[in-house]
Amino acid sequence: MTTPEDALEEFILGAPRRYTRQQIAETAELDLETGRRLWRALGFAETSDDEVLFTERDLEAVRLMTHLTDAGVLDPDVREAVARAMAQSLSRLAEWQVGMLVRVIEGQGGEVTPQGSREIAAAVLPALEELQSYVWRRHLAAAVRRMVVTSGPVDEPGTWQLVVGFADMVGFTRTTRRRSTAELSEMIERFGSTTTEVIADGHGRIVKTVGDEVLFVADDVAHGAAIALALQDRVRAEPALPELRIGLAAGPVLVRYGDVYGEIVNIAARLTAHARPGSVLADRGVADALSDDPRFALRPLRSVAVRGYRHLHPWLLERAAEI
């Protein structure tokens, strides 16, 4: 017997459950173990092979993935990594959307029920789906444009010259103990909106936000430096936010599945941990790139010993004094 919860889930999925994993694999000519790994990579709990869980849309998705693999667009060796990257972003988006709808219902004095949720889903799902497609295409267009106008990868495939920055809220754990849930929610929202606006205005892009820290990159070192200083200025003007520590490093960075890796990323993180509240520390790559830029002042500091680096040389980044 179909429960109200099952009916709601099928409505959101857009099709009734009809297939087991075994049937999906056989119909789509996909190896069963590969199907299990992809399901786990998408972030879903393991299920038995004979459970009727999948819909026509699941079958279409598997066929599409198989088609892209056969066409050479999606390498079999990276399919699971691609699935994980997509799932991590989309699962967070889905959780946020559901939380937003729950707050709307409760704010109107309503109760969250399967029937009420279905009515809301019917009203808002098409609009959310269309909006997500629009935002994705805009970001895709921006990413393609960056690829076309830049000089291309350096040294190794997937490696690009970037400036990497970490911005970390000082004393976040201590601050959360002193604030109510409503105040904490406001602080997180202000941090997200402020960093997003400043980084976008500065021609950078956010790689990810993890709790009290945001990781961003920019193609131009001067843009990255301006973003870091602008973040400090904006946060000082936000009473709801604690001070920031920011670290910047520039050089070759491995860009993979929407994330960044390598020594430059590690150095930026170490500089952030060592920075004083309200300051921006930069590495030698940033200092060298900005040495002749009259907008910035860089003061060398004593070398520090941090995890992985016994002699890391930081520079204090500030705006140049106006004459």
Description:
With 323 residues, the protein is an alpha+beta fold. Strands 1, 2, 3, 4, 5, 6, 7 and 10 form an 8-stranded mixed β-sheet that branches. A two-stranded antiparallel ribbon has the order 8-9. Helix 1 packs parallel to helix 6. The termini are far apart. The model has no long low-confidence stretch (mean pLDDT 86).
Order of helices and strands: HHHHHHEHHEEHEEHEHEEEE
Structural class category: alpha+beta
Radius of gyration: 24 Å
**Tally of contiguous helical segments:** 11
Mean pLDDT: 86
Mind describing the biggest β-sheet? 8 strands, mixed
- Taken from the alpha-carbon principal axes, the silhouette is globular
Main features:
single chain, 323 residues, alpha+beta, two-stranded antiparallel sheet, 11 helices, 10 strands, globular
Note the topology:
Layout: H1 4-13, H2 21-28, H3 32-41, H4 56-70, H5 79-107, H6 114-149, E1 159-169, H7 172-178, H8 181-201, E2 204-210, E3 213-218, H9 221-236, E4 244-256, E5 259-261, H10 263-274, E6 280-282, H11 284-289, E7 296-300, E8 304-306, E9 309-312, E10 315-319
Parallel strand pairs: 4-6
Antiparallel strand pairs: 1-3, 1-4, 2-3, 4-5, 6-10, 7-10, 8-9
Describe the structure concisely:
The protein has 323 residues and is of the alpha+beta class.
